[in-house]
Design brief:
Layout lengths: L7 H15 L3 H19 L4 H16 L2 H10 L2 H6 L1
Helix pairs in contact: 1-3, 3-4
């Protein structure tokens, strides 16, 4: 396993942003968005505090990197309510 540092989230955000912007078609970007949404849905299946924190953390990484993906997931999954709780 790789060590986690205070900059790990930013590194992941930058990497995901580069991956998203290097995708060659709208279909590929849609597939990327769907994969990210499925990951968020899988995190939300368990309704405990740790899962909520992981979901919010993952969403913050997406909003810092490929923010179009993060915004789409934020709107479609009603995650604002999760953040407020």
């Amino acid at each position: 396993q790789y060590p986690l540092t205070e900059k790990t989230k930013m590194h992941i955000s930058c990497t995901l942003s580069v991956v998203f912007h290097d995708l060659y078609s709208d279909k590929a970007r849609e597939d990327f968005n769907n994969e990210c949404a499925e990951f968020i849905i899988a995190l939300r299946e368990r309704d405990d505090v740790q899962s909520r924190v992981r979901t919010i953390s993952t969403l913050s990484v997406l909003l810092q990197g490929p923010f179009d993906t993060g915004n789409a997931i934020l709107g479609s999954q009603n995650l604002v309510d999760l953040m407020i709780q």
